[in-house]
Amino acid sequence: MKFLIAGFGSTGRRHLRNLQALGQREIVVYRTRRSTLPLDELVGLPVEYDLEAALAHKPDAVLVCNPTALHLEVAVPAAEAGCHLFIEKQVADSCQGVEALRRALARGGGRLLVGFQFRFHPGLRQAARLITEGALGEVVSASARWGEYLPDWHPWEDFRGSYAARADLGGGVVRTLCHPFDYLRWLVGEVESLWASTAKRSGWGLEVEDTAEIGLNFAGGALGSVRLDYLRRPPLHTLEITGMQGTLTWDNADGAARLYRAGAADPEVLAPPPGFERNHLFLAEMEHFLQVVQGQAEPVCTLEDGLRALEIAEGALRSAETGALVRFDHGRMPEC
Q1: Containing H/E element for 72?
Q2: Which of 29, 122, 176, 318 could link 164 by a cystine bridge, Cβ 3.0 to 4.6 Å?
Q3: Do 217 and 192 meet the contact criterion of CB atoms below 8 Å apart?
Q4: What is the SS3 assignment for 115?
Q5: Are 4 and 28 within 8 A, CB to CB?
Q6: Widest CA span of the chain, in angstroms?
């Protein structure tokens, strides 16, 4: 198979390495010269600076890894060309233009996987299994907390110029740390409504929000909360889901899920496999994408899943701006 990677930032580089680790050798890279990474890993690979020239290589699949606000500029022409698509979260910086992507996929016949890699975390997969089996009983609440210190993300560049810190590239903490919107939908169900508050507390002069508090009402009756920030040291990424029969927690630090059954003295610890590390999520995700491209599997995170997560992010920003509760109509395809 032949792959085109659009964007050679840290994410594009990771996917390049993982494709090569999985035995893929026909890889083309489409760049716009904005990356601040060293380019030694591109030696020997075809590199194009024009999208039409890149698509002329006739890739079977395109990995869209450029900044969020530029995703559709690559994804729509690639879908029109009949390519399968892997789109990093979020699908876009807004839902405007996404209908064109739907139509292009229908015409081109390609499949699409959205890159929410926590769908492949063994701890969260164990959590999904336990919830499906009824180990918690009826779920009554869910809370996700994710904080990281933005200046530590890419030490080789000025973080103020990174996509995560720029509104024009689709940044801000709500859009950038949006994974809980996807995995909470996966684990608990659809979000019926939300409220949110955001703030700029860092003093770094960013044009985007660096802190957010979001309250969720799930269609099944459960309540939820998501707290996000660019300020926390040390980093923290945790999840807690409470049900009538017990509580389940997950901590990204050790990757383990813990089930506290009602009446039990100690939790059941479901640790990830020995030697598990962060890149294993992305490697498993890319293995799945290869299966999707080959027609051996259905995408575990579809375009609609990606749009639901985007809808939640857009709703949170809208609520923070207006002070109003935002409601969602799940009888229609998401349009944000």
Answers
A1: helix 71-80
A2: 176
A3: yes
A4: strand
A5: yes
A6: 63
> Which tokens in the block code for residue 245?
């029969």
β-pairing, 326-327 with 246-251? unpaired
Closest by alpha carbon to 114, among 150, 84, 70, 73?
A: 84
Helix axis angle for 122-132 and 179-188, nearest 10°, is 30
Whole-model pTM: value is 0.95
Q: What is the DSSP letter of 120?
A: G
Q: Are 123 and 212 in contact (CB under 8 A)?
A: no
φ/ψ of residue 113, rounded to 5: -125, 130
Count the neighbouring beta carbons within 10 Å of the beta carbon of residue 197.
14
Please identify which residue in the block is written with the tokens 């801000």. 172
| Phi, psi (degrees; rounded to nearest 5) at 212 | -150, 140
pLDDT tens column, 131-188: 999 999 999 999 999 999 999 998 888 999 998 999 999 999 999 999 999 999 999 9
Closest listed residue to residue 127, CA positions, set 184, 205, 206, 81: 184
Token reading at 182: 């996807």
> 3-state class of 327 per DSSP?
strand
**Share of the chain residues as helix, strand and coil, in percent rounded to the nearest 5:** 35, 25, 40
CA distance 189 to 205: 37
Burial class (CB in 10 A: 0-12, 13-18, 19+), 276: middle
Helix segments in 177-242, DSSP class H: 179-188
Q: Which two tokens stand for residue 333?
A: 């395809």
Contacts for 106 with CB less than 8 Å, ≥ 6 apart: none
Residue-range domains of the chain with CATH:
2-110 (3.40.50.720), 121-275+302-327 (3.30.360.10)
CB count in 10 Å sphere of residue 284? 17
**64-85 pLDDT per residue, tens:** 999 999 999 999 999 999 999 9
